[in-house]
Every structure is written in structure tokens, then in C-alpha cells.
Amino acid sequence: MTETEMELRVTPIGNGTVIDHIPAGQALNVLKILGIDRTTEATISVLMNVSSLRSGKKDIVKVEDRELKEEEVNKISLIAPGATINIIRNRRVVEKYTVDMPDLIVGVLRCPNPSCISNTNEPIKSQLLVKSKNPVVLRCVYCEQPITENIADYLI
Amino acid sequence: MFGKRHVLSMREFSRDEIDSVLDLAESLEPYARGGRCEALSGKILALLFFEPSTRTRLSFETAMMRLGGKTLSLGPAEGSAIAKGESLADTIRVIGAYADALVIRHPKEGSARLASQFSPVPVLNAGDGAGHHPTQTLLDLYTIRKESSLEDLRIALVGDLKYGRTVHSLAYALALYGADITLVSPPTLEMPASIKADLAGKGTMVREAHHLDSVIRDVDVLYVTRIQRERFPDPYEYSKVAKSYRIGPESLDGVRDGLIIMHPLPRVDEIAPEVDETRHALYFKQSFYGVPVRMALLKMLMEESR
Questions:
Q1: Where does L-aspartate bind (chain B) (predicted)?
Q2: Phi then psi for B231, rounded to 5 degrees?
Q3: What per-residue confidence (pLDDT) applies to B202?
Q4: Which of B114, B116, B119 to mutate to test the interface with A (most CBs of A within 10 A)?
Q5: CATH top-level class for B135-286?
Q6: So what's the pLDDT on residue B306?
Q7: So what's the pLDDT on residue A23?
Q8: Measured between CB atoms, does A129 come within 8 Å of chain B?
């Protein structure tokens, strides 16, 4: 697909945030982490399985008229470690960076341990410490159980 | 050396911090045996046991009384009644306002950590489900230091190494002392790979064996744990395994002179009663050492919170 064909599918946005280089198939999980669901009023474009020079196929998410904050988007590094964030103003990229995993992930993933106190109705949010970013190794602050795989399965 | 506000997990202890607890415990031992001490006079320790316990609970109570303090406690019945309606967080906030420190045992893993986030006073974890039981580990280390040695230690951990929480935190702490660890368990109850990987990350390689025979003659400490019947779907399989790990007087042929046998208790039939009379049997003394060790922790946490 050429650039022109691509533009026919989804036109560039004027203002907002473009999340590029999401691993193919993870776009919907990215929206989930960002808390973007059917209640949103923003215009959202989701492109899945787009050809990519870097990785063969990728997903792209565009959120119009909303500049996502760095701490918000960094959470998606759990499932899209190489994703890049482009902040667009007046059709220009004014800021571009690669997501970076935070040291502590709060309220995004539930602990996989069914006997963990964080999986009960206590007034707390799940908290996972990032022990290693590549490969991803997380550890529950409460029960100390490690999480290393199928991370998307534990999205809250 | 002890800047802690809570005692939740052995993972948070450095070797220096462990040593400072054991040193203080040693100096408090005469008072654990009945000498007069008023170090915590006027202080109240709340015991919150949401799960049954005999040893741990009574030993904490004894420790507090030996230091001149008082205790109030919530039994399993009241605990479960509360657990039905009220969040643990609320219970902790309420009782935390009555006492100067809290001891908690709760069936959910991570519950002591949660308690520490809501408690206005220090929290001591007395067992959170299959998670941690740091005061048991500290009393185990105290026993080894007093009755054997933590230096150049050769130790075998025997029994249920998969579910037994005491052996996980003990192995972790022993790694800090560079101990040579052999794990002896039935194939179905081996130590979880994640814990072995954690130990390897600390530079401790563990050996694994499925039989006791040769291992017992080669170690300074034999740490025996209970193999629970309910872990086996087949009762015949259970009795076969349980029998092969039973320590009797005949198992002690050719062992090292200074070998000590430890057990977190309660034992069922892992160690034959005839072994109790041998010089190797240390499990009852080990259980008593829970008192000076818990006294040390209470004193450190509660004096600092004055």
C-alpha cells in the first residue's frame, strides 16, 4: 500500500495524538489501557495490520483533539514496548517519543494470583513493580508474585 | 541498622538487618526465660488472627508480656465475622487506633502489605496465606546461628517445598549467607522454578534430590517440613511418599556429630518420637527461640515508634 492509498483509508489528523508502531493485533488493548471506550466523544481511528517496514505489520491508533499525557501513554508500553507517540498540532508533529515503561504500574493489570488480597474488594488499586523492561518482568507489590507472560490477559 | 516501620517479608531484609535482629534477640534471651523486663510497659500489641494458629500467636503474646507490655486479640471466629462485612483496610484502621502495633495472620497473600498501608502503627506479618512468614524465618536463622553456624552452612530443606511458605523465605534468607542448599522433595512437590531462579539471581545454586539417604550424612542442618495429605489425590501415593521422608533413629546412622534437625511444627509423623531424645533434635528449642526473636522485633518496632 502506498502513502496515498493509506491516506484514502484514514486521513492525517489536524490535532491530537497518533500512536504508531503498535504490535499488530494490540490496537484494541491499547484503547483499553487508555480507558477509551464507547463512551468517548473524541474521533478515534484504529488501523490494524498496516504494512510496516520495521516490523512487517503494525497497528496505529489516532485520537483527535486530545493530547495524551506521557504518564498516560507510558502504560501501553506493557503490550506495545516500541510504540511511538506523535503529538499533532495544526497538522504538524510537534512532539515525538517512544513510550517508556514506568517503574510502578497502578490500576492497569490485575495480579494473576487468585489468592492475592488485591483481587478482593479492598479499597486499593493493583500495583505492579517493573523488575525488568526487556523481557517484561512485573511483580505484585502485595503478594510478590511475578508476571512474565500473557500480560494482555490481565488488563483490568 | 534497623530503620523499618513494619516486618512484612524477608525480601526486605539485608544481611546486616537480620544480624541486628538476631543480636538483640540473643541479648533478650534471659528475659524470654522469665527475667524481669519493662521495655514495653504501657504498650499494647493487637493480635489479629483471621486464621487459626497456636504457636505463632502464643509466642507473640508471650514475647509482648515478657517485655512488660499487654496484648489484645481478635480470634478466628471474630475475625471471620468481621471479614464478612468489613474490609480488612477498615478493620486495620480501627484496631490500629487502639494499639501500638499489630500482628496479622490472614488467608490472603499480600494482606500484611495492605495492612501496612492503612495502619497508623507498625505491622508484623504472622503469615499471609501461602505468602510470607518472616518471623518464622528469623527464628529459624536464630536457631541455626545459636546451635550450628550461619557461616559455611550446609543445609537440606526437606518435604513440601512447593507450597511450604516457610522454606521459601528461609531459602531466600540463607542465600544472603551463602549457604550450600540441597532441596529434598518428591518430584510433585519441588520448589517452584521462580523461587529457584530468584536464588540463582542472588548467586546461590541449589542442588535437588528426591531421596534423603545420602544427603542426610552430608549436612549440618536438616530442615524438615510436613507433607500434607491433601496435596495428594491418591492416599496410597501419599503414604508411600510420607514414609520415604520419615526420619527415624535408623536414619541418623553416620550423620555428622553436630547435625541439627529442625521443624517449624506442628509435626505429624515426619520425625519419629524416638528422635526427640537424640542430641540432634532441635525443634522444640527452635520453637522456644520464637520468643526472644519476636521480642527483639517488637522492641525494635515499638520503641522506635515512641
A1: 84, 165, 226
A2: -80, -10
A3: 85
A4: B114
A5: alpha beta
A6: 47
A7: 94
A8: no
Contacts A115 to B, Cβ<8 Å: 107-109, 129-130
Helices (H) and strands (E) in chain A, counts: 3, 9
Residues of chain A found within 8 Å of residue B89, distances taken between Cβ atoms? 122-124
The parts of chain A modelled with pLDDT lower than 50 are none
Q: Do A113 and B128 touch (CB under 8 A)?
A: no
- Structural domains present in chain A: 3-98 (3.30.70.140), 104-154 (2.30.30.20)
**Residues making up the binding site of A:** 111, 116, 140, 143
Chains A, B: CB contacts under 8 A, how many?
A: 55
Half-sphere exposure of B5 (CA within 13 A, CB side): 11
Buried b (16+ CB within 10 A) or exposed e, B104-136: bbbbbbbbbbbbbebbebbbbbbbbbbbbbbbb
Domain B10-132+289-304 superfamily per CATH: Aspartate/ornithine carbamoyltransferase (3.40.50.1370)
User: Where exactly are the structural domains of chain B?
Assistant: 10-132+289-304, 135-286
pLDDT of residue B162: 87
CB-based contact (8 Å) between B117 and chain A? yes
Is there a contact between A124 and B117 if contact means CB atoms under 8 Å apart?
Answer: yes
Give one DSSP letter per residue of A31-70, joined into a string.
Answer: HHHHT--TT--S-EEEEEEEEETTTEEEEEEEEET----H
pLDDT at position B268: 87
Q: Look up the ipTM and state it.
A: 0.86
Q: Does B107 contact A at CB distance below 8 Å?
A: yes
pLDDT < 50 regions, chain B: 1, 306
Q: Which of residues 55-84 of A touch B (CB under 8 A)?
A: none
